[in-house]
């Protein structure tokens, strides 16, 4: 346990500059949006910027993990590490998840602050919608992060074989196309679609901003949409599978 905490601390140190740099960007964008709202006397102008910052977190974990992998690649230390590939990669995933969670909570706080200026047009604070949004963004970011780890590890693993080293990126493109092709085939299978459409949960459409330059309006829709559960289950299985496959490849002593 002590050794793993050392891995976490190491990954924290090599990524903290990226994190604090991103938080600085978040506050700069928010202050600029706030200034625009004050200048045009439209407080609601800041809300699309807050939502945009939230959507940026789809890429937060993949980008942060990639930055850590690049640093590790320059040192080559994990070629001689006694830790398994699972621990080496899981440490990076945990740090990226914690940083992303903190960043998303900061954006949530800025969103609540902005929503408080719109309380005269809001029937309630959309806290439930916010939770679903956070879960969707975070789970998607983790999913993309696992795929990035797999592509990065597989790319450098192929570097051990001179026969494919010069065109290994084509194999990565082939994996991507093949996965998308299989996914498209699955949605054409009747029994799969019956299950797909049968397992759903109802979620509010949430909030939106409407209007023109002279009259903006922030509203919440009470309508509900059906969100299927099967994709989340299948994405989870794929995510765990590619993560463990990446760990197995890393245990083969990947050189970068």
Automatic annotation (TrEMBL):
UniProt entry keywords in alphabetical sequence: Membrane, Transmembrane, Transmembrane helix
Transmembrane regions listed in the UniProt entry: 12-33, 45-69, 89-111, 131-155, 167-187, 229-250
Can the keyword Transmembrane be found in this entry's annotation? yes
Protein name, as recorded: ABC transporter permease
Q: State the organism of origin.
A: Bacillus seohaeanensis
């Amino acid at each position: 346990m002590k050794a793993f905490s050392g891995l976490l601390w190491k990954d924290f140190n090599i990524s903290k500059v990226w994190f604090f740099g991103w938080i600085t960007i978040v506050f700069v964008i928010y202050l600029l949006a706030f200034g625009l709202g004050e200048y045009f006397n439209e407080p609601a102008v800041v809300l699309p910027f807050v939502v945009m910052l939230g959507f940026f977190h789809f890429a937060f974990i993949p980008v942060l993990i990639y930055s850590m992998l690049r640093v590790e690649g320059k040192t080559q230390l994990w070629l001689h590490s006694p830790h398994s590939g699972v621990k080496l990669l899981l440490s990076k995933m945990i740090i990226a998840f914690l940083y992303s969670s903190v960043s998303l909570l900061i954006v949530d706080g800025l969103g609540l602050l902005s929503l408080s200026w719109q309380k005269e047009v809001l029937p309630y604070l959309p806290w439930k919608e916010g939770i679903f949004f956070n879960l969707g963004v975070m789970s998607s970011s983790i999913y993309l992060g696992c795929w990035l780890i797999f592509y990065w590890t597989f790319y450098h693993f192929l570097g051990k074989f001179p026969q494919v080293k010069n065109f290994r990126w084509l194999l990565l493109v082939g994996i991507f196309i093949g996965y998308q092709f299989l996914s498209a085939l699955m949605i054409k299978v009747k029994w799969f679609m019956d299950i797909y459409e049968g397992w759903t949960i109802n979620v509010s459409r949430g909030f939106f901003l409407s209007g023109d330059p002279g009259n903006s309006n922030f509203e919440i829709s009470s309508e509900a949409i059906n969100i299927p559960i099967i994709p989340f289950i299948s994405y989870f299985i794929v995510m765990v599978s590619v993560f463990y496959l990446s760990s197995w490849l890393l245990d083969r002593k990947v050189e970068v």
